[in-house]
């Protein structure tokens, strides 16, 4: 872990990084180049229960925000509680990244060959589509609420640059993942032998037809092999990066029929679902980055969550290199 040496002013921190869950926070913290001491002049707003860590990545000073254990389980409150408190306590923040896990909507036959551990970035038609997933899961008609605004212009420019760089040289995500494990070897395997922050093996990444329900058990060993979607092999564990719409709601989708119905409402560029930002406020400049940990169907389990948290965090780290710190400083802070 980088030493807590620097002590800056709280005004020096201009980018917020939201990772509400403990596993997401662990991955985010592991990507920091340095961890800083609590900045001078910082005091939390009286309503603020967030947990903060300060540090830097490259030339950017940023603050990572996660939720207290008794709060992060209240999914429908996550976005509002975290962001309003962040703005109140850190009024110098210009932009924020929302980085964590999500469910992939894989449709290989339509060009969306999304695998577990891959990365989805919310672009271009708004980062998040608000959906009433509770209503959808009850079999009622899906009701589209709204799209939040486009990510900040600096992020959109950075996305253009990083895409071009990936065409030429590939992504640095595998490098950052390797560095994370070298600095934090305990992340390969958790103390209680839960899956670590490493690729979980191609044999544990299985996509089933929407009509195939999961057979109860800790894995898909009893599920119908004949209903498994046949996909071309990947020769490397390097995660692929996809850009599209991320649908968000208050209830996790664990049913393929519900998932497909929501996609039909949103459009074919909807490639990910998540629940943390279900009440996201539209006037917050945001870019959402999700690591894929399941396929939003009855076969979902927790095995890939830590690795997916790490791939999303590694992409966020790489993206920051394409955003000039001087340009961030010139932007107007997020209004409280």
From TrEMBL:
It comes from the Eukaryota. Transmembrane segments: none annotated. PANTHER family: AAA+ ATPASE DOMAIN-CONTAINING PROTEIN-RELATED, ATP/GTP-BINDING PROTEIN-RELATED. InterPro entries: NLR-like (IPR053137), Nucleoside_phosphorylase_sf (IPR035994). Signal peptide: none annotated. Gene3D superfamilies: Nucleoside phosphorylase domain. This is Ankyrin repeat protein. SUPFAM superfamilies: Purine and uridine phosphorylases (SSF53167).
């Amino acid at each position: 872990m980088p030493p807590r040496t620097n002590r800056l002013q709280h005004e020096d921190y201009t980018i917020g990084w939201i990772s509400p869950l403990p596993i997401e926070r662990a991955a985010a913290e592991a990507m920091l180049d340095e961890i800083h001491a609590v900045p001078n002049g910082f005091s939390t707003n009286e309503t603020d229960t967030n947990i903060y860590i300060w540090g830097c990545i490259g030339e950017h000073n940023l603050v990572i925000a996660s939720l207290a254990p008794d709060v992060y389980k209240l999914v429908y409150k996550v976005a509002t509680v975290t962001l309003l408190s962040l703005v109140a306590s850190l009024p110098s923040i210009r932009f924020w990244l929302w980085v964590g896990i999500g469910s992939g909507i894989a449709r290989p036959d339509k060009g969306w060959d999304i695998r577990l551990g891959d990365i989805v970035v919310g672009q271009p038609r708004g980062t998040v589509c608000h959906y009433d997933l509770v209503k959808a899961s009850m079999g009622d008609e899906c009701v589209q609420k709204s799209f939040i605004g486009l990510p900040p212009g600096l992020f959109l420019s950075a996305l253009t640059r990083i895409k071009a760089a990936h065409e030429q040289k590939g992504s640095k995500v595998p490098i950052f993942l390797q560095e994370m494990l070298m600095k934090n070897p305990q992340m390969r395997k958790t103390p209680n032998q839960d899956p670590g922050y490493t690729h979980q093996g191609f044999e544990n990444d299985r996509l089933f037809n929407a009509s195939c329900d999961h057979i109860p058990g800790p894995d898909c060993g009893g599920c119908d092999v004949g209903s498994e979607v046949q996909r071309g092999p990947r020769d490397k564990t390097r995660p692929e990066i996809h850009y599209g719409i991320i649908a968000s709601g208050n209830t996790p989708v664990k049913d393929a029929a519900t998932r497909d119905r929501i996609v039909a409402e949103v459009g074919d560029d909807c490639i990910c679902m998540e629940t943390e930002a279900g009440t996201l406020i539209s006037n917050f400049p945001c870019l959402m980055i999700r690591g894929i940990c399941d396929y939003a169907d009855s076969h979902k389990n927790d095995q890939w969550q830590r690795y997916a948290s790490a791939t999303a965090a590694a992409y966020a780290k790489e993206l920051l290199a394409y955003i000039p710190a001087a340009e961030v400083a010139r932007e107007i802070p997020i209004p409280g």
